[in-house]
Amino acid sequence: MKEKITKKMTVAEALKKHPRTAFVFIDYGLHCVGCPMAQIEQAETIEQAAKLHRLDLKKFLKDLNKAAKKC
After folding, report:
1. Is residue 51 part of a domain?
2. pTM given for the model
């Protein structure tokens, strides 16, 4: 299995390492996956994105890692 997605991983890292997670981001209303700023490695972490969008971080990470296993 590839590297597990953690709250400290950036959105860009998650998308680069686990492309199928894009569907999870979109399902959660984070349409930033297509945004040029989301592609910058030093950009927002998963934790920051969850906080900003008022998401349940544990559930969000669980769903991201579930999708990552399918990559």
Report:
1. yes
2. 0.85
- Domain containing 32 equals 11-69
Show pLDDT as tens, one digit a residue, over the chain (71 residues).
Answer: 568 999 999 998 998 899 999 999 999 998 766 666 555 656 789 999 999 899 999 999 999 999 999 86
What CATH number does residue 25 fall under? Answer: 1.10.3910.10
What one-character-per-residue DSSP string does 7-43 give? TTSBHHHHHHH-TTHHHHHHHTT-GGGGSGGGGSTTS
Please check whether residue 11 is in contact with residue 32, taking contact to mean a CB–CB distance below 8 angstroms. yes
User: Could you give the C-alpha distances from 66 to 4, 21, 28, 48, in angstroms and in order?
Assistant: 10, 9, 14, 20
Do the Cβ atoms of 15 and 21 come closer than 8 Å?
yes
